[in-house]
Write a structure and sequence with these properties.
By secondary structure, this protein is of the alpha/beta class. The chain is built from 20 helices and 19 strands. Helix content is about 40%, strand content about 20%.
């Protein structure tokens, strides 16, 4: 693991900010690195407020979308709320349908079947809308490239309002309104909303048009938005960070029934982004991966905690199945790579008769294992379908485009993509993709790296520093949790493996004669040998907290451990 240190900010600016805020220079440096350089910016950063959200009518076509929906409500028209089968899509549908059902009983929801219909606005859904007497479809988290489907729907008398956040093509679909901050002609000041975020802006605008107080009206939907933000891994900057901050507050104070039951077993309180990303989101996703995304929508819209608990138990069983499929496929893929002697190939490309709903997760896990661009194919109805993941800024989309003569179709972006291929073209694609990666990838892109904010002495870490850092959340892309380096650290002699499979490492570190600080390393059991030998190690960690029997204390979250090559001057205080 390569440690990539963030350039340290101007010392004078750091000192000035530290003085104006009454904080230490270590935290002030973190803030300056994040673009916070004065008191007002710090206030907005630490306490995001509703007033920081942008006017929804700044989004191109918002007035058209509001007028069409208001007309549909006035006419008593039948509405279909349509969304993708992942967390962003199902949360978007629950948000929009939940809002509209306050004003009409003519709302139906629709999530496409992952296997029979695939991603986006499907032809089957257009037929269903016609058969159901739908006059208006609100498509969320998809639709920006559904030109033919929307044109056909229009010929049947069905209008569309598209709420999307993906990159548009050269032309837009002929919908009544297309809400997408990434439209080249869109003047909306923040471009990185998730699909559910765009949906929230639409109900924000509708609330204003109806004369409702937006802050009160939208509050119950913020838990859906923060869950979608966490799952879709969009930047936690600007408006996303404000929505995440407000959404976490809503989630912790008054969660909807679904989140109340999905987080019952989560010990961490208050809930943070990582619990949503690693505990809640996989369970919502499991419905669409194993069964059908409509089950997730039903759970998210359920108002009875007792009923939601029964529904969540069923989804939990699907999530268990998902984990089983995932581990089986992963092990089979590893065996295939070993049998082919492909461990050192420029790219990882595997194919099998595997569960289509899980191959994306397996592609991510293989990427972590070999740190190479990875493509995982599975056969479905005579066609190979694949999910792909990239590494360290390697442009996966460009590499696939160079091999597109071997593919039926492909789409995605630099970091992730999906594609389909005729079985007889698989070997040709595999060879071409490996050649293309070998030509384009740089050596540093084949080694995992981790961003490090600064080095720190363990004696500098205390509960006050922990509390200030926690207030810098919510953390995510663009506002990552600070990562620190400490040198010449030793374990105090009680390190042990923990967890159901003993894959985690727990202990306490000291530096010279400093007081010991507890640490937890998820997946770091193999480092126990270094700890037992009381070997000096250099470590990377984030500063977190642990609550036990009502007492909260500092806990370090391991990011990396290396045997020290030299003792840091500050810890040369005697023998260990």
């Amino acid at each position: 693991m390569h440690w990539q240190f963030t350039p340290q900010p101007d010392a004078g600016l750091t000192a000035s900010l530290a003085q104006s805020l009454g904080i230490g220079t270590a935290v002030a440096a973190l803030l300056v690195q994040r673009g916070v350089t004065d008191y007002d910016q710090a206030k907005a950063y630490f306490r995001p407020e509703w007033s920081a959200l942008h006017d929804p009518f700044d989004m191109t076509d918002m007035d058209l979308a509001v007028d069409r929906i208001m007309d549909a409500l006035a006419q008593g028209s039948r509405l279909m709320v349509y969304g993708d089968y992942d967390v962003d899509g199902t949360c978007s549908v629950a948000l929009m349908a939940g809002f509209l059902q306050q004003f009409t009983d003519q709302v139906i929801t629709y999530i496409p079947d992952r296997y029979l219909e695939g991603y986006g606005v499907s032809w089957v859904s257009v037929e269903h809308a016609q058969a159901s007497g739908v006059d208006l479809v609100i498509a969320l988290d998809c639709g920006i490239k559904a030109h033919e489907q929307i044109a056909h729907a229009q010929s049947l008398g069905i209008d569309y309002v598209v709420c999307d956040h993906h990159e548009p093509g050269k032309t837009l679909p002929q919908a009544v309104a297309v809400l997408d901050p990434k439209r080249p002609d869109c003047t909306y000041p923040y471009k990185e909303l998730c699909g559910c975020g765009v949906g929230l802006k639409l109900i924000h605008a509708l609330s204003l048009a109806m004369g409702l107080d937006p802050e009160t009206t939208l509050a119950p939907y913020l838990d859906l938005v923060v869950t979608a933000i966490a799952a879709d891994i969009v930047p936690l900057t600007g408006e996303n960070r404000t929505l995440a901050y407000l959404g976490l507050a809503q989630m912790n104070q008054s969660p909807r029934a679904a989140f109340a039951v999905l987080t019952e077993q989560t010990k961490q309180r208050p809930l943070q982004m990582e619990q949503l990303q690693f505990h809640v989101a996989p369970r919502i996703n499991a419905a669409g991966r194993i069964k059908h995304g409509q089950h997730a929508v039903a759970l998210l819209m359920e108002t009875s905690v007792d009923t939601a608990r029964v529904m969540a138990q069923e989804i939990e069983s699907w999530n268990t199945q998902r984990r089983g499929h995932q581990e089986t496929i992963f092990q089979e893929a590893l065996a295939q790579i070993e049998a082919q002697g492909a461990q050192e190939a420029p790219a990882t490309v595997v194919c099998g008769h595997w569960h289509k709903g899980v191959i994306g997760i397996v592609a991510s896990k293989l990427t972590e294992t070999y740190y190479r661009p990875t493509v995982v194919f599975t056969e479905h109805e005579g066609v190979l379908h694949a999910s792909a993941r990239s590494v360290s800024d390697f442009d996966l989309h460009a590499a696939l485009e160079a091999c597109s003569q071997h593919l039926i179709q492909f789409g995605g972006h630099k970091a992730a993509a999906g594609m389909s291929c005729e079985p007889e073209r698989y070997e040709a694609f595999k060879k071409a993709f490996n050649q293309m990666v070998a030509q384009r990838i740089e050596p540093h892109q084949m080694t995992p790296s981790i961003r490090v904010d600064a080095s720190i002495e363990l004696r500098e870490i205390n509960p006050k520093l922990m509390r200030i850092i926690q207030q810098m959340g919510p953390f995510g892309p663009g506002n990552e949790a600070p990562v620190w380096a400490a040198y010449g650290v030793h374990e105090t002699g009680y390190a042990q493996t923990v967890g159901a499979d003993n894959s985690h490492l727990k202990g306490a570190w000291a530096q010279g004669d400093s007081a010991a600080i507890p640490f937890i390393g998820f997946g770091w059991a193999e480092a126990q040998s270094l700890m037992r030998a009381r070997t000096l190690v250099d470590v990377l960690f984030s500063i977190s907290s642990n609550t036990w029997n009502g007492v909260t204390s500092v806990q370090l979250m391991v990011k990396d451990i290396k045997k020290s090559t030299a003792i840091h001057p500050d810890v040369q205080t005697g023998e260990l």
